[in-house]
Every structure is written in C-alpha cells, then in structure tokens.
C-alpha cells in the first residue's frame, strides 16, 4: 500500500525515458479529499531547484491536490526555462485532474543542470498516461516509490494505523535518498499522506517537529541538496480528528522509520553510525557535538577501518562552541568505554564492530541528549561519486 495506505489517495509511477537505464522515472500522488490540506518543508540550501521554487509558492496557502515527481534530472540551474517547465507540468496536471496549477506541487531529483527541452517534453507528454494510471487504481504506491529512485538500491516506504476516539486513521509514505544526505532535510524527496481530518496549520506544526527530529539529524556525507522536499498531504477521508500531540508522535515515528531506511541505503556505506551526545547543557549543544563528529572525515575513515580511534572524537568535540569541560569528556564505542575524563580507558581492541556502530559522548554538563546518524567514508563512496555524472 505504501503512500496510498491512507484513504483518499491514489498514486502511479511509469517510465517516460528520463533515465538512460529505462527504469521508471515519473511519479504521481493524488489527494481525492475531501480535504486538500498540505504542509511542506524544503531544503535550506540557498541554491534551490526550480521545482522547489514553484512548490514553495504553491504550498504557501496550505492547499494541494497532487504532487508530480521525477527522477533522472534535478531541473536545477536550468534558468527561466526550467521554472517554466515546473509551471507547465503543474498546469497540464491541473487540467487532467480538473484542479488549478497552484494545487499541484512539483519535485525533481537527479543531476543539477539537467532539464532541457527533451526533459520537459518527456514529462509533459507523459502526464496523461500517468494520471490515467492513477485513475485506474492499479498502483498500490509501489510503482510511485520506485519511480523516484536514483542511486537508491531499494524503495523506501512506510505505513501506520492508529486509533483515535471511536475510529482510526492512517499514515502512508514514500521516500528516496542515498547520497547528499545532510541537514536541510537530507537529499531526499518524501511524500507523506494521512486521512486524518486536520487543518494545514496542525499538519505544518507536526511536520516541522517530525523533520527536526528525524531527517534533519541524518548527516551521512555533509552535503546538502538543492532539491530536498518533504510534503505531508491530508485528505480528511477518515473523518477522524486525532489530538495534535498523538498525531505528531505517530508522524515523527514514521519519519524516523523513513530516515533509517535512507541511512542504511547510504551510498557506499559499510557501517551505519549513530552518534549520541548526552550530558549536554542544551539539545542544541548535543546535536552540534554529534554533528561535528559525524562530519569528520578522519573519524569516518577510522570507522571504515574498524579503528575505535576515540581521539578523533574528542578532537571534534573541541571544535564546537558547546558548553563542556575539555578534561571531562567520556567516549563509548559499541558499548565499550574507551575514554573517561578525556584519558584512555578500556583497551580499544576490545571494541567489536558490526554493521551498526554506536558512539556515545558524555559532556557531563547538563541533562540534554541528541543523536545524529552518519556513515563511514569508504572506497565505494568515493568511487560512486567520482563517476556519478559520467
């Protein structure tokens, strides 16, 4: 079911020839209502792709009926022509769905600079078949999820069902992302759907909380995308109105699930690393410290070599403006305390490495905790990204 797990939604995915591989590359999610509430968050990169510029405008009123997504080209830095491509895509989709262009959001993923006339023609000409496939109701959302994949090795989807009062409501979702995973939502496109009957204002608050505690904590390679988009659409089809706190908790759980799916599929990764800083004076301090370690190539290379080099962790902590005593830092790797009060503790050779690696840092400066997820720096990552465009 995936993105169509929530009632009131249809989806489709097909191939229009944007990828040399011939794999699916055009996707659609339609909200049949009765509500057309929407919330969205976008990349914080100041260099934004044309679909982001279009969708920011279109979603500002808290309403949307559909999202069109393509892989095989980012339509970023393709000039006024590229923005016109996004507008024309929304106009044609609006015509086919009998809604306004401003109720259609656009998402793209792929190489920056790709988005010429052939790119435009293939998308716009493929829209009638895409809408017809969605109308036919034969897609359970799987094809839609597969059509947004780039270097992903698997489609990423979630489903959730929750009780509220005498009824129940559902969440569905799909995501793509495997590289350029860094704060600012990571390099990803995410479409979330719910049939809960909630206004756009509640969806917006819930989404911002959920992304801040999930996608914004994923930092596999320190590279921020130009196209990041997370959209939450509400159909209201269940007629159930959950309280905001419980809905936010369920949405956050769903986003964490998708984030972890992105994490384990990160390009070239051999180790999935969770860096947790505790004993911090604030959550911001905890996240800052964890992120500083996550972005250290020396640390990431050490984990690739399964070297529990805690000195590289302590050195990174010292680059931050977090509150801590440099002489009182503890570091634990995979459950083994290798550093206590900034001095050697257990024999590093006693650390056992598996695919999952935990690094715990205690600043002994307060009650707050924060986790950032990252990956090791591998030969495979370098090889894949050195030849990505060729």
Structural commentary:
The chain has 2 domains: 263 residues, L-amino peptidase D-ALA esterase/amidase (4-Layer Sandwich); 115 residues, ArgJ beta chain, C-terminal domain (Ubiquitin-like (UB roll)). About 2% of the residues have low confidence. By secondary structure, it is α+β, with helices and mostly antiparallel strands. Helix 5 crosses helix 6. The strands form 3 sheets. Strands 13-12-11-14-10-15 form a 6-stranded mixed beta sheet, with helices on one face. The chain contains 10 helices and 15 strands. A hairpin with a 2-residue loop joins strand 12 and strand 13. It starts with 8 loop residues before the first strand and ends with a helix. Heterotetramer of two alpha and two beta chains. Belongs to the ArgJ family.
Give the tags:
390 residues; alpha+beta; L-amino peptidase D-ALA esterase/amidase; Ubiquitin-like (UB roll); 2 domains; globular
Distance between the termini: 35 Å
What is the third-level CATH name, the topology of the largest domain?
Answer: L-amino peptidase D-ALA esterase/amidase
* CATH architecture classification of the largest domain: 4-Layer Sandwich
Radius of gyration, taken over Cα atoms and rounded to an integer in Å: 22 Å
Total beta strands: 15
Structural class: alpha+beta
Residue runs with pLDDT of under 50 for 5 or more positions: 180-186
Assembly context of the chains: single chain
CATH class placement of the largest domain: Alpha Beta
* Spatial strand arrangement across the major sheet: 13-12-11-14-10-15
Taken from the alpha-carbon principal axes, the silhouette is globular
| Order of SSEs | EEEHEHEHHEEEHEHEHHHEEEEEH
Identify the CATH homologous superfamily of the largest domain. Answer: L-amino peptidase D-ALA esterase/amidase
> How much strand content do the residues show?
15-25%
Helix content bin? 25-40%
Give the averaged pLDDT, no decimals: 92
Organism: Brevibacterium yomogidense
Binding site for substrate: 150, 176, 187, 267, 385, 390
Family: Belongs to the ArgJ family.
EC number: 2.3.1.35, 2.3.1.1
């Amino acid at each position: 079911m995936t993105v169509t797990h929530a009632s009131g939604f249809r989806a489709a995915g097909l191939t229009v020839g944007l990828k040399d591989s011939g794999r699916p590359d055009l996707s659609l999610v339609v909200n049949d209502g009765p509500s057309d509430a929407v919330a969205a968050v976008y990349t914080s990169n100041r260099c934004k792709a044309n679909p982001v510029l279009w969708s920011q405008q279109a979603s500002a009123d808290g309403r949307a009926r559909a999202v069109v997504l393509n892989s095989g080209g980012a339509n970023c830095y393709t000039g006024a022509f590229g923005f016109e491509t996004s507008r024309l895509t929304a106009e044609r989709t609006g015509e086919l769905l009998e809604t306004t262009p401003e109720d259609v959001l656009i998402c793209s993923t792929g190489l920056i600079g790709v988005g010429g006339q052939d790119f435009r023609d293939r998308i716009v000409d493929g829209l009638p078949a895409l809408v017809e496939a969605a109308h036919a109701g034969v897609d359970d959302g799987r094809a839609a999820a597969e059509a947004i994949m780039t270097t992903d090795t698997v489609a990423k989807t979630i489903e959730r069902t929750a009780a509220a009062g005498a009824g129940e409501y559902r969440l569905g979702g799909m995501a793509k992302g495997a590289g350029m995973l860094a704060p600012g939502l990571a390099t990803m496109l995410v479409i979330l759907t719910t049939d809960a009957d909630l206004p756009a204002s509640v969806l917006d608050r819930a989404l911002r909380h959920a992304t801040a505690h999930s996608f914004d904590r994923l930092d596999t390679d320190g590279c921020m995308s130009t196209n990041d988009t997370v959209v939450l659409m509400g159909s209201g089809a269940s007629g159930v109105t959950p309280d905001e706190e419980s809905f936010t908790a369920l949405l956050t759980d769903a986003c964490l699930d998708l984030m972890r799916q992105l994490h384990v599929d990160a390009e070239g990764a051999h180790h999935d690393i969770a860096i947790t800083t505790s004993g911090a004076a604030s959550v911001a301090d905890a996240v800052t410290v964890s992120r500083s370690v996550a972005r250290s190539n020396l640390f990431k290379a050490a984990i690739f070599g399964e070297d529990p080099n805690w000195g590289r962790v302590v050195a990174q902590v010292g680059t931050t403006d977090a509150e801590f005593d440099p002489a009182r830092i503890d570091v634990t790797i995979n459950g083994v305390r290798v550093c206590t009060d900034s001095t050697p503790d257990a024999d590093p050779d006693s650390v056992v490495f598996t695919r999952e690696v935990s690094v715990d840092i205690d600043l002994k400066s307060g009650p707050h905790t924060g986790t950032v997820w990252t990956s090791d720096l591998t030969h495979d990552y370098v090889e894949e990204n050195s030849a990505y465009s060729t």
